[in-house]
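Contributing new records

If you add data, match the layout below exactly. Sequence lines come first and carry their own label; structure lines follow with theirs. Keep one chain per record. Anything else will be rejected by the validation script.
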Amino acid sequence: MRKRGSVAGVSGPDRSYIGPVSTLPLRDDLSLPFQVEQCDVRGRIVRLGPALDSLLARHRYPEPVAHLLAEALVLVATMGTALKFEGVFSLQAKGDGPVSALVADYRTPGHLRAYANFDAERLEGLELGPGGTTGLVPLLLGKGYLAFTIDPRSEDFERYQGIVDLSGASLADAAHAYFAQSEQLNARVVLAAAHRRGSDGRRAWRGGGVLLQQLPLDPGGLTQEERAAAWEKMQVLLGTATAAELTDAALGQNEILYRLFHEDGVRVFETAPLLDQCTCTPDRVKGILSTFSTDEIEAMAVDGTITVTCQFCSESYRFPAEVVRRAAGSLDA
């Protein structure tokens, strides 16, 4: 296997090839599509920094839970940014382990949100492996399933859901089982997350990942044998990407792609921004509350006030019970 180059890469204008000299500033919270045309492969690299850190910091999850949720967000970002229509790409894992549920979703044009339900007492008794980040799927989620859902906003496209058993040691392993079941073409992904200490001494969450997909067969392009050999080579090269590289704030996304694939000429396209953005609003929450019966509204009220906390962003909303009753009454009228 060849040694990877260690020279910084950079993209020029849109749809340009990466070169060996970097003059662009480093950027975070983005998805960058790319293509390795000589090998019939396309893909996306995702880098998450401040958006991921702010999302996880609001919940104050235990470190292993936050790590697993960070990888889930990287995964939905790498897959969701491939949507060619407005909609939602979501991941939902349910198991019998200390983490009973994990949800992450990507909403066009680049909004991310996520949450996890866990049993604190069961987490305390766990014996984590080296670094506390290996084998998290069987350790935290246990036995269960992983569901990927594509929910278009347009009636021109149908809702799709693929479900696989939780298998392997990582979310990447589970994703590969989904690819094998659902994709007509080969696909492979690497995911990474880390709670790293920055130059200011503060620890912050970072995440990164690379998704590879084999392009459809071109009758005038590579033969079947050449495509198989090229895909095998791309998987080997992808496997050399380390978690340290993918989560290094000082290492740009173009440099990572150059290190991995520059021998075959990697071409990059326009980046897509990624944001920590929930969908909850006061009006939306009040609208949901107004669908409950009068007795249910009374049961939810404490000292005449109903408090609702969003699972995704931890934002709390408070409404006078009388206001909710009036809203519910207007719906019944």
